[in-house]
UniProtKB/TrEMBL annotation:
Residues 202-211 have a biased composition (Acidic residues). This is W2 domain-containing protein. Residues 149-180 have a biased composition (Basic and acidic residues). It comes from Spirodela intermedia. SMART domains: eIF2B_5, eIF5C. GO terms for biological process: formation of cytoplasmic translation initiation complex. GO terms for molecular function: eukaryotic initiation factor eIF2 binding; GDP-dissociation inhibitor activity; GTP binding; translation initiation factor activity. Belongs to the eIF-2-beta/eIF-5 family. The lineage of its organism: Eukaryota, Viridiplantae, Streptophyta, Embryophyta, Tracheophyta. Residues 149-213, 243-279 are annotated as: Disordered. Residues 181-198 have a biased composition (Basic residues). InterPro entries: ARM-type_fold, IF2/IF5, Transl_init_fac_IF2/IF5_dom, Transl_init_fac_IF2/IF5_N, Transl_init_fac_IF2/IF5_Zn-bd, W2_domain.
């Protein structure tokens, strides 16, 4: 099936990702009963995310002819003989009025009908709301036949199943906390036991909180602990006393050049200091853009694209600005600015950059941010900012990379397990 770009303005863009099939028409009948059948109307409507009845009715309104779309058979008929070129021009006009966003031009819009019986297009790419001209003839048909929700019922059931699973996990955690409190209260009231004999009944129950651990103080054990805890350079500076004397520290004279290098390694290099200052300046710029009066997701996306630091450093600065620079409460701040983040994370590559920015921010902010990384990822997932596949891909790459020891992956693992278990349950139910 031949494909073409959606929108006449994107006709020559070879890398445009929004495609639709070329229109195929067929003339049927003769005389007064001649009709034009749009053979692939269902495929065109699916690519535009609009009901096929809307497009068929629009052709009839513009041509002044009767039109009909059969929902059961998927046949689209317009009275009269009309060539494919003429109908394609009308289809472009329909796309411009009822599909493309009036702000960014992308076809990722949803038709919404307000309480005052007006029609608007909500863009999921930039967040812009386009008001449709109500003087158009098709608007009356749209008001009488409102569109169905864009999301399928299967996806809604999947979300509901995951929410129910989350509630079950929360109730289980609450029950575990109650059991822990009960055990602590029982131990507090019971007499204190100083030591336990090997093989006692409490050891069989697995309660080892009152076991008194002993440390091996032999010379060989001390040597082994030193080599485990100290580096190869510092282990040579410590000498154990075999005769029971206190340990002595042997300091080696280092040449001036080695001393100078060690001092430089303890601080930041000029390049790192310059990069840190550039990051702070870019973060302040993104914070000002977010807090600006009348700020919109479209303007933020334009400011991010115009940043000279590169896609990933710019995303790092935007993420830190969206979080307010603090690790605690990160998930709450991200949920507030989900529309802005969704405008800049419009594809898989930008979503991965956003997740890497969260990883880098947790490394800078410390333990408070690392503890909330699962909640932050859940907030971005619930707001449809990042997809499930991007989250899992980012997590697996982090475990396989050089920073696999980061606490981010340990705190994120329960959320990843929940995602994968919910996915497998939904697939088995289907």
């Amino acid at each position: 099936m031949a494909l073409q770009n959606i929108g006449a303005g994107n006709r020559d863009d070879a890398f445009y990702r929004y495609k639709m099939p070329r229109m195929v028409t067929k003339i049927e009948g003769r005389g007064n009963g001649i009709k034009t059948n749009v053979v692939n109307m269902v495929d065109i409507a699916k690519a535009l995310a609009r009901p096929a009845a809307y497009i068929t009715k629009y052709f009839g309104c513009e041509l002044g002819a009767q039109s009909k779309f059969d929902e059961k058979t998927g046949v689209s008929l317009v009275n009269g003989a009309h060539d494919a070129q003429k109908l394609s021009a009308l289809l472009e006009a329909f796309i411009k009025r009822y599909v493309q966003c009036y702000g960014c031009g992308n076809p990722e819009t949803d038709v919404a009908i307000s309480k005052t019986q007006t029609i608007a297009l909500h863009c999921t790419a930039c967040g812009f709301v386009s008001d449709v001209d109500m003087r158009d003839k098709l608007t009356a048909f749209v008001l009488k036949n409102p569109p169905e929700a864009r999301r399928s019922s299967a996806n809604k059931d999947k979300k509901e199943m995951r929410r129910a699973e989350k509630e079950r996990l929360r109730e289980g955690e609450a029950a575990d906390e109650g059991q822990k409190k009960l055990r602590k209260e029982t131990r507090r009231r019971a007499p204190h036991v100083a030591s336990k004999k090997h093989g006692s009944s409490e050891d069989e129950n697995g309660d080892d909180e009152e076991v008194q651990w002993q440390t091996d103080t032999s010379l060989e054990a001390a040597r082994q602990r030193i080599h485990e805890q100290l580096t190869a350079a510092t282990a040579e500076m410590v000498k154990l006393s075999i005769a029971g004397e206190p340990p002595k520290r042997i300091q080696k004279q280092q040449p001036p050049e080695a001393t100078k290098k060690s001092k430089e390694s303890n601080g930041h290099s000029p390049a790192e200091a310059a990069a840190s200052e550039a990051h702070k300046a870019l973060t302040a710029e993104m914070k000002a853009e977010l807090d600006k009066k009348g700020a919109t997701p479209r303007r933020l996306a334009a400011a991010l694209a115009a940043a000279k630091a590169g896609p990933q450093p710019a995303m790092d600065a935007l993420f830190e600005a969206a979080c307010g620079g603090a690790g605690r409460g990160m998930a709450r701040e991200l949920a507030k600015r989900a529309a802005f983040l969704g405008a800049v994370a419009h594809d898989a590559a930008s979503q991965l950059r956003l997740l890497r920015a969260m990883e880098a921010f947790c490394g800078r902010a410390g333990a408070d941010a690392s503890k909330e990384v699962a909640l932050a990822a859940k907030a971005l997932y619930d707001a449809d900012v990042v997809e499930e596949g991007c989250i899992v891909c980012w997590y697996e790459a982090g475990l396989a990379g050089a920073g696999r020891a980061s606490p981010v992956w340990k705190n994120l693992k329960p959320f990843i397990d929940w995602l994968q278990s919910a996915e497998s349950e939904s697939e088995s139910n289907e």
